[in-house]
Amino acid sequence: MALVLCTGSEPVVMKTRQLLLEKAGHTVVLASSDRDLERACKSHQFDVVVIDQNVSPAVKKRFFLLLREHCSPAKILELHRPFNDKAIENADAWLVMPSETPEQLTDLVTELAQS
């Protein structure tokens, strides 16, 4: 399965997402700051990066630039709330959160990793 980097600002949400993705067979690394993100990208070759819906649009854009600089081959999945627009125009995929089922996230991560 995929090596996935999950970014975000809420530890409980990030841990829940990690458990969900690991149950689906993925390996997950968490990053909540610019420094964490850069360190993770220098240590791993990620297949997919998930940018959390609870991060502000400005932080999402900054994370995107850092990811393209340090983890350029990784596919980027932006999560966003139903009442917010997408913040990253050049992401590889988007998913409204909360999704209808948990499998939507795991299936999309799997699909991105295989493309």
Describe this structure in words.
With 115 residues, the chain is an alpha/beta fold. The chain has a single domain (3-114), classed as Response regulator (Rossmann fold). It has 4 helices and 5 strands. It has helices at residues 11-23, 34-43, 57-70, 102-114, and strands at residues 3-7, 27-31, 48-51, 75-80, 93-96. It has a 5-stranded parallel β-sheet, sandwiched between helices. Strand 3, helix 3 and strand 4 (75-80) form a beta-alpha-beta unit. The longest helix has 14 residues, at 57-70. It is globular and about 35 Å long.
How many individual β-strands? 5
Side-by-side strand order of the widest sheet: 2-1-3-4-5
The level 1 CATH classification is Alpha Beta
- Taking all Cα atoms into account, the compactness measure Rg is 12 Å
Could you spell the SSE succession in H and E letters? EHEHEHEEH
User: What's the CATH superfamily, by name?
Assistant: Response regulator
Number of discrete helical segments = 4
Mean pLDDT: 93
Strand content: 15-25%
CATH fold name, please?
Rossmann fold
What is the number of domains? 1
- Specify the overall morphology: globular
Distance between the termini: 12 Å
Main beta sheet = 5 strands, parallel
The helix fraction, in percent, is 40-55%
In the CATH hierarchy, the architecture is 3-Layer(aba) Sandwich
**Which structural class do you get from the secondary structure elements?**
alpha/beta
Are there runs of 5+ residues with pLDDT below 50, and where? none
